[in-house]
Amino acid sequence: MKARITVSIKTQFVLLAMLLVAVSSALWGWWSWKNERHLLFESLEGEGRQMVTSLASPIINALVYEEMGVIEEGGLLDNFIEEIMNNTGFPVVYAYVTDSSGKVLAHNNYSEYGKTYTDQLTTAALAEGHYTSILTPASADHPSLLDVAMPLRIHGKSWGTLRVGISTTSLEQELEALAQRIVIVSLAFFLFGVLLSWLIGRGMARPLQRLTALMAAVSTDNLDIELPPRRPDEIGVLQDSFLAMLERLRRSEGERERVVAQLIQSEKMASIGKIVAGVAHEVNNPLATIATCIYNIEQSNSAPNRSLEILKQGAERIERIVRQLTDFSRAGALEMQPVESSCVFDEFREFGRMALKNRRIRFVAEDLCVPPVNLNHDKGKIHQVVLNLLVNAADASPESGEVRLTTTVADGRYIISIHDQGSGIPDGQREQVFDIFYTTKPAGEGTGIGLAICKSIVEMHGGSLVFESRPGDTTFTVSIPVSPQRGDL
After folding, report:
1. What CATH number does the domain containing 163 carry?
2. b/e burial code for range 67-103 (CB count within 10 A of at least 16 → b)
3. Is the Cβ–Cβ distance between 455 and 382 less than 8 Å?
4. Residue 263 forms beta bridges with which residues?
5. CA-to-CA distance for 422 and 39, rounded, in angstroms?
6. What 3-state class would DSSP assign to 98?
7. Omega into 372 within 30° of 0, i.e. cis?
8. Alpha-carbon gap, residue 433 to 425, rounded angstroms
9. What is the span of the domain harbouring residue 428?
10. Using CA atoms, how far apart are residues 6 and 456, in angstroms rounded to an integer?
11. Is residue 204 situated within a structural domain?
12. Which among 165, 44, 30, 25 has a CA at the least distance from the CA of 96?
């Protein structure tokens, strides 16, 4: 597969700007030169016309006087020709006067006397009777010329024509110098335009390049990208779109991680549940035998034995653990039933008081879910969750501390919060709080099963169990979905 050739936006912009500047410079230079050439030749022709027009009447008078014999033939005409040739304002190459047939009567070159000119300009001037001019290119005999012809007419009679050839060499030299200046200015303008377009292109491309680099750095492991300050232009809109995309990626990645963690936890719990069910079954049989033996010993008339009491306590503890393990293995079976949140709260408050009445703490229950909402859950298992969290909160609280139970509703979910004033959960232990058999209580006081069961039950209800903790302030929050209300049906 051929490698794709990529051209950056900056390069495209600079190339396009170079083309536009080059075309603009060329058009401006060509127009300036053409306009200046037109003005120069128009000025030269105007001055030439003024000169031959001003001499036409005196020359006609001289021709009339010569015909009448008043003056010598040719003498006065030669003076006019000499005057024209000596005019310092014009680079005159030749000047001559012809009669009405084109015969030369006076010429700056004496060898041309008596010749008859039948060239196009002379013939046109004699025939049409008005001023005529043409540009004659350079030849071996003369430089480039502005040829002007003024017919000598009075009262409809043609006396001949006045011809003057004005050199345009100085004008062409001036135009050549102008062309050089235009080329230099155009080149300078072109270079300035290229530099300016490069600077503008770089200014436009740099934020895009930074944004592209940031986009390239985005990965599932690196979604916390810090963007430069927002620009008030289209690039700023692109930044907003990129930030929105990042936010969607973060939410998607967070949801993916949550689902993966939940799936792993579910698989782990399912595997543990199978193991626990087998262990509970195997432990339960010898436990029943031990309990029977203890009962028989207690019923005998022998003196009480301290070891017997310890044995009894151990058996009761094993029985409690087995019961919890059995509950854990059966957590997948839910018996859902509809109930109103106010009734649920009343039950929470009552069994909370009963469970904590012998504790040296203050129990506060507050229902902020007003008006009540409808719930659909397994009443017994949700009671088990709340009771377990209340007992844990009481165990963590200092004497005269407060355990607070609060219920509310937010975003279509029923929220149960249990707050205590204990020492908090250390940072290094927060990851394992919901792991089965993990406990922060002293040996013999906790099994590490309760919170794992609580989390499993809440998640089976489509909810979540989370906590926030710092010294003197720990809150476990249960969130479960509410049922559609009657007004929503």
Report:
1. 3.30.450.20
2. eeeebeeeebbbebbeebeeeeebbbbbbbbbbeebe
3. no
4. none
5. 100
6. strand
7. no
8. 9
9. 335-488
10. 54
11. no
12. 165
Whether residue 4 is contained in a domain is answered as no
Name which of 146, 72, 163 is nearest 112 in CA terms. 163
d(CA 316, CA 85): 143
What is the Cα–Cα distance from 270 to 15, expressed in whole angstroms? 66
Report, as an integer, the average pLDDT of 218-242. Answer: 64
- Kindly give the pairing relationship between strand 157-167 and strand 92-98: antiparallel
Residue 49, H or E segment: helix 9-68
**Residue 62, pLDDT above cutoff 90:** no
The answer to whether 41 and 34 have CB atoms below 8 angstroms apart is no
The pLDDT assigned to 302 comes to: 60
- pLDDT of 407 strictly over 90: yes
In angstroms, the CA 151 to CA 56 distance is: 8
Is 110 in the same domain as 152?
yes
CA–CA distance, 137 with 134 (Å, rounded to integer)? 10
For position 347, what pLDDT does the model report? Answer: 92
By residue count, the chain amounts to 489
Per-residue pLDDT reduced to its tens digit, 14-57:
788 788 888 888 888 889 888 888 888 888 888 888 888 888 88
Question: Do 341 and 304 share a structural domain?
Answer: no
Three-state DSSP class for 231? Answer: coil
CA 128 to CA 153: how far, in whole Å?
Answer: 11
First to last CA, the chain: 59
